Amino acid sequence: MTTTLVEAEALTKRFGTFEAVQGIDVEVRKGEAFGFLGPNGAGKSSTMRMISCVSPRSGGVLRVLGMDPDTDGPRIRARLGVVPQQDNLDDELTVRQNLEVYGRYFGLSRAAVREKAVELMGFAQLTDRADAEVEPLSGGMKRRLTIARSLVNDPELLLLDEPTTGLDPQARHLLWDRLFRLKQSGVTLIITTHYMDEAEQLCDRLVVMDGGRIAAEGSPGELIRQHATREVLELRFPPGEQSAAEVRDLAERVEVLPDRVLLYTADGEAALAAAHARGVRPVSSLVRRSSLEDVFLRLTGRTLVD
């Protein structure tokens, strides 16, 4: 039977009169990668802080690893791994020392932490930097070290808050590989991100949060099927010359942006041929499959909210 590691019902977090998390229901199952996807300020990090037992809930029910964070916080934290948004490594210590010192916080013996540090440096591909200080390491190396450090206690549940923010594409893909390996080994992952490709690559299931509420829930494929079409036709025009008037009936949904028109349709090539037959001549055109980004923007909007 599937074991539920995190269960929340009507979970709420308030800061004074501001309600950052507004009564959400969440279930995370053992062995899966679960994602919280949403724009900045959606409530993702507040939810993660409650799950990691460092911020008390304001209302609702929350159980983590079968326990109540209000009464069993230390026991839960001992079985969690946490990767914060910002790396909080000790820059004056070496890579090896960062792992060994952190392991001692969990009561591991000196021999055990030395052995664990060697294992985790291999996992993070940092063995050749074992005795180098952390400060001059690249952002990708520091991020891999932060993840390796979170594994020193062999956690059952690993919480990653925006794990690849600020990394270049090569570092992001290497980090995705490390996380995929962790999931294969049986570690349950909870990930917050605002990168659509990251959510599609890593998450078995996810929720899209907006304004402290859950706007949609499901696998990436399910969300695309429910909230988008099979394909999207992008017609690009010079700024100010785009219009949906000639093509509005060629797709299930049409969206006008400052430099292009998006047609959400089951057959992008057919829609493009029909547009050309009507004399529509864009500067360029592109037929692509619908993505999680299309779902995200439909559910949360294209306007930035600070």
Automatic annotation (TrEMBL):
Q: Does the keyword ATP-binding apply?
A: yes
The family database entries (Gene3D superfamilies) matched by this protein are listed as: P-loop containing nucleotide triphosphate hydrolases
Q: Write one Pfam family the protein is assigned to.
A: ABC_tran
Instruction: Work out whether the entry's keyword set contains Transport.
Output: yes
* ABC transporter domain location: 6-236
Provide the alphabetized UniProt keywords: Antibiotic resistance, ATP-binding, Nucleotide-binding, Transport
Q: Which PROSITE patterns match?
A: ABC_TRANSPORTER_1, ABC_TRANSPORTER_2
Family affiliation? Belongs to the ABC transporter superfamily.
Its recorded name reads ABC transporter ATP-binding protein
